[in-house]
């Protein structure tokens, strides 16, 4: 899942997979285009007790988030 922004036309799109594994594009509002949702796959504690969180697309360290949860990442 990725956000595509076209500055010239001021349009934002969400690129996702449909149920058959093909790409699908949905229009987004500018407010929603500032964030990206990521599914949490794994939580672990690194060296020196630093918490790590692994998602399908990024890492975000917050000890309050659980596995199989969803987080929003600010991409702007």
UniProtKB/TrEMBL annotation:
InterPro entries per the UniProt record, alphabetical: Ribosomal_eS4, Ribosomal_eS4_central_region, Ribosomal_eS4_central_sf, S4_RNA-bd_sf
GO biological process: translation
Keyword annotations: Ribonucleoprotein, Ribosomal protein, RNA-binding, rRNA-binding
GO cellular component, one term: cytosolic small ribosomal subunit
Record-level Gene Ontology MF annotations: rRNA binding; structural constituent of ribosome
Superkingdom, natural source: Eukaryota
Keyword Nucleotide-binding applies: no
Ranges for domain Small ribosomal subunit protein eS4 central region: 9-75
One protein family per Pfam: Ribosomal_S4e
Record's protein name: 40S ribosomal protein S4
């Amino acid at each position: 899942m990725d956000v595509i922004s076209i500055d010239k036309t001021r349009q934002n799109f969400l690129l996702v997979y449909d149920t058959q594994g093909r790409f699908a594009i949905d229009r987004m509002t500018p407010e929603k285009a500032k964030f990206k949702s990521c599914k949490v796959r794994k939580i672990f504690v690194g060296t020196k007790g630093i918490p790590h969180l692994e998602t399908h697309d990024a890492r975000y360290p917050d000890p309050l988030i659980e596995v199989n949860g969803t987080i929003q990442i600010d991409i702007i």
